[in-house]
Amino acid sequence: MSTSTPAPETPLGSYALQWQSANPGQSGFLPLVRGIEGLGARLRALDAAQLSVDAQYFLIKPDEAGRLFLGKLLVAADRGVKVRLLVDDIFTPRDDRVLATLASHPNIQIRLFNPLSRRVPAALHMLWDFGRTNRRMHNKSFLVDGAAAIVGGRNIAEEYFELKAEDNFNDLEVLAVGPVVTDLYASFDSFWNSELSLPVEGLGRQAEPAAMDRWRKIMQDVMDGNRPSAYARAVNSDFLRRLFRGELNPQAATARVVSDAPEKLNMPPGAEQHLAVADALVEAFLGVKREATIITPYFLPRERARKLMIELASKGMRIRVVTNSLASTNHVPVHAHYRKYRRELLHAGVEIYEMRADRRPGFRKRNGTEYMTLHTKAFELDGETLALGSVNLDPRSIEMNTELVLFIDSPQLSRQLRYFLGRDLPAHTWRLVLDERGRERWYFDGAGEPEVVRREPGASLWRRAWVGLYRLLPIERLL
After folding, report:
1. Catalytic: 382?
2. DSSP 8-state class, residue 477
3. How far apart are CA 203 and CA 190, in angstroms?
4. Any bridge partners for residue 30, and if so which?
5. Long-range contacts: 14-23, Cβ < 8 Å, 24+?
6. Is 61 annotated in the active site?
7. From the CB of residue 303, how many other CB atoms can be counted at a distance below 10 Å?
8. Catalytic residue among 164, 335, 377, 428, which?
9. Pairing of strands 173-177, 27-32
10. Taking a C-beta distance cutoff of 8 angstroms, is the pair 16, 148 a contact?
C-alpha cells in the first residue's frame, strides 16, 4: 500500500515533516537543471525509500537510464518497498518480458496506460484504432514515501540524463517536499485507478525468474563499482554532494498541482470540460501584468493562444517564446506547421528565440560539433510565478494528451529561471526578427561578431525539404 503523507519513521518522511514544521503551509522546491542530477536524485531517493515508490511516465526506454531506474526499483522492492509503476504504452518496448518479470515480484505492480493490442503489430493496431491509440498519457511524476517528488519534463531515457554521446535534451525538473506532494499523489491515484490503466500481467507475457536474478547480480556489481556504468557519476554529482552536506535548502513557496483527468482520453479532442491544464494556463496568462516567457520544445499555438499572446503584446507586455529551431528539433512536422505563425506573432511584437543545435558546453561532440535539443516545458510570469511540468504549447498537449503542471508562486525561483535565460539565450539561441520588407531573419550575437542568417540556420537541405512536404499535409491536429 502506498503512503501519500510523510511517515516520521522514514528518513525522507522525517526530513519532510521537519521542513514542513519550519515552513507551515508551504512546499519546498530545488531545481534539477542538469540531466545527471535528475538521474542521481531518483537513484538516491530509491536508496532512501522504505515504504513506497510511485512512478508515472510517458516513456521508459530499455537503455542504460531505463535499466538503472528499473533495476533500482527491483532493489527497493527486495527491501520491502511497495512499488507502483504506471507507463503509457505507446513507446513501451514491444518485448514486454522485462515488465512482466518485474511485475511478478510480490512488491511491484506495473500498469500500462491505454495499451495497444499485442495480437497484431503495433502499426496495424494504430491504423485500425487510431482514434484511441493517438490519445496518450504524457504526465511525469516520481513519488517516494509520501514525502518527496520529482516533477518536470524528463522521461526515463539516456538523452534526458546527459548519457548519450550525441543529441541530448535540455530539460528542467524540481525536487519537491511539502503539501504539494500529497496533491501529486492524488493525481497519480486518479490515473492508477482509471479504467484505462491495465496490469501488465494481462498482456500474457511470462515472467522469467532467472532474468530477475541476473538483474539483481548486475545491479549489485554496478553499485559496488565492479561494472562500467553511469551510476557513480549520477549518485555522486556535485548537486547531490551539496544537498547532503546541507548546503542546499528547498525554496519555500505556495504551489498547486493541475492535472488533466484520465477521462480526457475518452472525450473528443478539445472537449472543454476536460481542458484543466489548458484552462489553468490561460487563466495564468490573463493575469500577466508586465511580461511572460514561454519555454516549449514544440510550439504550435492554436488560435486561442495566438490571440492571447498578441493581445498581451499589444498592451505593451513583453512576451517571449523560446523553442527549437529546425536544426535542433526532433519533430520536424511540428516545426513545419509552427512556421506558418511566426510572422504574425513577430509582427505583433512577440519575441521568438530558437535554440541553436550546435552550442551546448559540456556535451560530447558529433563530427566536431556539439548538438542539443530543447525539451524544457516551463512558463515564467511577471517574475512571480513559475509553471513547470509536462505540457507543450501545441495541440497534442492541449487538446489530446493528458498533462500535469506545477504552478509555483516563487519570485526566487522565477528570478533563478530569468538568470539562466539572461545568461543562456544570447549564447544558445537565434532571435528571429522581421526586416524592413517583413522577411524573417535570424540574429545571433553571443560569440563576438553578430551573425545574420536569411533562412533556417544550421538545418540541412534534407530537413528543409521535409518541411516543405509536411506543410502540404493537413496533420496539424495530429502533431
Report:
1. yes
2. G
3. 22
4. 175
5. 15/147, 15/177, 16/146, 16/147, 16/148, 16/177, 16/178, 16/181, 17/147, 19/177, 19/178, 19/250, 20/177, 20/178, 20/179, 23/178, 23/252
6. no
7. 8
8. 377
9. antiparallel
10. yes
What are 89-147's pLDDT values in tens digits?
Answer: 988 776 788 999 999 999 999 999 999 877 777 777 777 778 888 899 999 999 999 99
Residue 47 annotated to the active site: no
- pLDDT level of residue 371 (50, 70, 90 thresholds): low
Q: Are 111 and 86 in contact (CB under 8 A)?
A: yes
| Catalytic residue check, 377 | yes
Q: Which of 138, 274, 335, 428 is catalytic?
A: 138
The reply to whether 129 belongs to the active site is no
**What would the pLDDT profile of 145-203 be if each residue is shown by its tens digit?**
999 999 999 999 999 999 987 778 999 999 999 999 999 999 999 999 999 999 998 88
Q: Is-catalytic flag, 96? A: no
Position 362 confidence tier, pLDDT thresholds 50, 70, 90: very low
* Active-site entry in 72, 331, 335, 375: 375
> Which of 303-312, 336-345, 439-448 is predicted least confidently?
439-448
Domains along the chain?
11-244 (3.30.870.10), 260-478 (3.30.870.10)
Q: Give the torsion through C-alpha atoms of 337, 393, 164, 123, to 10 deg.
A: -60
Catalytic residue among 63, 279, 382, 409: 382
Indicate the burial class of 158 (C-beta count within 10 angstroms; 0-12, 13-18, 19 or more): buried
Catalytic one of 145, 171, 260, 394: 145
Instruction: Tell me the pLDDT of the chain averaged across its residues.
Output: 91
Residue 197: which H helix or E strand, with range?
strand 197-199
